[in-house]
Fold:
Amino acid sequence: MEPISTSKLFLEASAVFTGFSKTELKATGMLQSYHNTILKNTNKEDIDYFFIDLNQLLTDPKQDAKSIKHILTTQFMPISAYGSLAQNMIILWYTGNWGNDVISSASYIQGLMWDTIHAHPPGAKQPGYGSWSDLPLSVKQSTVKSSPNGK
Amino acid sequence: MENNNNNYDVVIVGSGIAGSIVAKLLTNAGKKVLMLEAGLAAGIAMDQEANYKNYQDYLSTFYNASAKVPNSPYPNIKDAPSIDVLDIKKTPSTEGYLVQMGPIAFASDCTRAPGGTTLHWLGTTLRMLPNDFKMKSKYGVAVDWPIKYEDMNRYYEMAENEIGVSGNVKDQNYPIEQKSVFNKDYVYPMKVIPISYLDKVMTDIIDKNSKIILNDKAYKLYCISTPQGRNSIPNYDYDINGVAWNPGTKKLDITRNRFKEGYNPVGSNWDPYTGQRCEGNASCVPICPVQAKYNALKTLRKCDMGNLSVKTQAVASKLLINETSNWINGVEYKTYIKGSSPEYETHTAKATIYVMAASAIENAKLLLASGAANSSDQVGRNLMDHMTVLRWGLAKEPLYPYRGPGSTTNIPTFRDGEFRKDHAAWILPLDNWGWAWPTFSPGSDVTTAVSEGIFGKELRDRIENRVTRQFFTHFECEQTPDPNNRVTINPEYKDNIGNYRPVIHYNATEYMLKAFEASGVVSEQFFDQCGIEDFTEYNPQDPDYVTYKGKGYSFAGAGHIVGTHRMGFNKQDSVVDSDMRTWDHENLFLVGCGNMPTLGTSNPTLTMSALTFKAAEAILKQLEQ
Amino acid sequence: MENNFFQKNNPNRQKLIKPLTDLDTPQEIANSIALDSLTDSDIPQEIANSIALEGNIPQLKDLPLQFKMSQKDVKNYIKDLKHLQACLRTALQLELSTIPPYLCGLYTIKDGSNVEAAALIRSVVVEEMLHMVLVSNILNAITDPKSIKKGEKLFNVKDIIPNYPTFLPGDIHPEVPPGAPPFKVHLLKFSKEALEEFSTIERPSDPNAPITKTFDSIGQFYEAIRYGLLRINKKTPGGIFKGDPKRQITPEHYYGSGGKITKVTNYEEAEEAIGEIVGQGEGIDGTIVTDHVMFGENIEYAHYFKFQEISYGRMYSANDTNFQMPVRSVPTGRPFTVSWSSVYNMKANPKMKDYKNNPELLQKAIEFNKVYVTLLNNINDAVSGDPDLLIKGIAVMYDLKYKAIELLNIPLGNGECAGPTFEYVEL
Structure:
């Protein structure tokens, strides 16, 4: 398999499994590092089949969103599928860990779970004096957006 | 070998907050001080570049630690090991530094590094309450202190100045007879640290609900802001600018500004403009990246450096006692070379007065190893902690935890009252960091959801929905002194360079178990009335799982290691007098939490610091006799 | 010795500004007379020729390095109170216009590299924010509360945001090398060019520079404001300091750098506030303080010199004292590493319209700009009668950085990466 296409597929797969957009994932700056992490820690055969099968599923014109979700759930998410690659990949993006190991300072700091809960990794990306006393900025701004009184 | 000339007025063992306060006061009063510190030299770097680099190393170690426990940023040195909560196992256990004989495990840790455990303390700086000093005469439990609250007031003011406390005096309503425990018109150095969003939501709910029935008596839960040692907006009504030795009156004076200039927040140790305000890193324990939170190195920095020598990687191993006078003759210490090899050199440090400031467990261990100060047989006994029962649940609405300092509000309802005759008092902080402590959230929420096969947008929504509603509080129960809870030594257990490892015997008395039971009764009503769905679970496999009347409870340590060389009224009942001088050796002082006869419901650092000012005053007085 | 660095109040930081009376040097008067007859100041060559003809003025026999407004013009620049208020609004815009370029320099430094450079730029940014607040204090001090309509803000956020590349507001035109286009401020990644730009922004006036009709430095512009404040305050019965003291931002609201907020209720305090701004910016006439030692690690000094340090990869030391313009002395203190490669390769002057073909990226740019506008709104609210909002309002600065880094992590496909655009968006 071409390295470039694996990398593209890795981004695609990451977006599907994490629920974050490709741009959001790129914005973490972790794409390359995580791609290397899975290549290093997962059986090659599992990786190859994972991406081949996933690519086939996502490019199959007969599938719709519902059927894709079903197949992902039953064929990709189980711990027995592709050496648990889907589960490990999600945990990697959300926590910055592979198993119990922290990949790097950056992976800890870029864990998606912190954004998800409108917080920040403890000890990094601090939000400034008194910020904790209000709603998180990300919550406030989404309220502004949806509020009919907002400009 | 060191030259044996008695060049120093005082040798201090330990550079934590107690040692640093003594060093600062003594050197600024012109006394020559030698400080011995067991931790690595890098941690004490005074120049900007080296100091910054060392601290960044701590931070990066923290980022990369898989378990982000209190000691995770700091090096655990084989030749001077630290107690680590990761080593707490079912007893008996020899895992880690402590030898835990049980029947249950002592659950708290501390740090052996320059700056001591203030590197990872939370920073809560509540004073003890007046009745805490007279538990025996008031409630027939434990012992009285030889000092009253009223004697402590001025030392509390000194400690609050040194640490730089942010808080609102007017908020501090406690369940006590006195209207206020503060001097008239007193204010804290800085304004209150803003309370969290979570606090605001919960305070509203608690104010409307939370009438609690406990043992047929009604209590009202209420919330107050928590004073804490981290930088906030200076209070312009605050006029204290420091503490100075007055050779005329032989007392420490609180010095004041002539004009109200307000307090000047002390920034980080590498850059005075970093850390002038808390920036909300939400990692006070284990590490404040900007040092807006106080640490003892800020105090050490204010020493008169011309009068201070510091030896690092120097582990005190024995006090030498003059057999005729019973005075202390010197401190023997071992200087390790690498920290990991068994090579070391032995030296002796000599001075007029000796001050042990090596933490409650280390102080006791060293005294036992030296056969010192123990005519009362109290050395090592009465080991205490806040035995902490955790409670967690899900609120109906998002509280947006994991932001801000660890805790900014507490429920003081059960800090004092007649119930103390029956069971322990506790403080109930509202915690800002979700279920991180009890369940390792939010990482564990992710792995659980993923293992259930949830992924994509659904996963994102589930994590957002659940984790933002996490509510967590903990009952920090005041452990009373029990002579059987103790630090001992045993030649079978020594560390890498032949120093004793502390051997711990520890248990929960019925007085504590009753408090655990009461905490269950209270939290059930509290959660129910406030619409918190309870998710608390105590696992019999937890190392500190205890049962009482058919119900099980797990408790944790609070990191408040107290009571191993208590002060008292006479040489039969205690190790030190109210000046913290050992009854047995006129030139040996002990400082630190080990002196505290009882614990109260406040985190002990502030009270211990206040006592240290008192000790330093006595030391200076003795030196100038 | 090493403890000196940690002293809290540095006495040398005071008196950052020379008294106004010192400014009429005979040489400047001579320059001014020599050029008085000139009407078109926009043609440097012409001026140069005219100077060449005036061979009898010894100071000008060298090729001119800078052109600046004459002292007389500076003194009389401000016409009346309205004009003074307008100039202070321009000063606000001027201070604001410098923040995005400095932030781009700061944000594009990759984490862990260029530690000293990042710290120096960061301190400058914090002080530029302080300058905005100080200018607001002066403006509030001379604004009669009766003239403020209910709900009216001190400035208009939408109008104050510059469109990069931009001229410096306030008719300030620093000198550029011969043949180069007039100076504009660009949003650039951390680079030699960026440092050159930063130094140009903060470069002090050259006392020997010949005269034009525009300001040659931010310092000269503030000098005009100082003269204006003095003159108009004197000739207005009851003075002009009629502002509401409750609108003043006070010292406890600010932290994180060597600067100090001055509450402004009279001329002397206004003078002190400008001293803080100009002293921090460039020093006066290229000096930091008037008399003794200027540099060393324990001294806060002007932005221009901080940028010089980065350019040379060396701190100034206490021995470096020669700062008459043009500054020739090279810093000789502790060297530090400057890496031009550990940098995000940000596209220069990024715009939202550059991202229009990538809606997700555009969304990120909009999110950044929303935080930027929120920050400015917060500052505006704080200086428009709610001083307590400042400290929390400024906390948004942190989020601004994280949003910027997200953009910088996104490659554009041509070797460059996206970047923050600092444009106005509706919230």
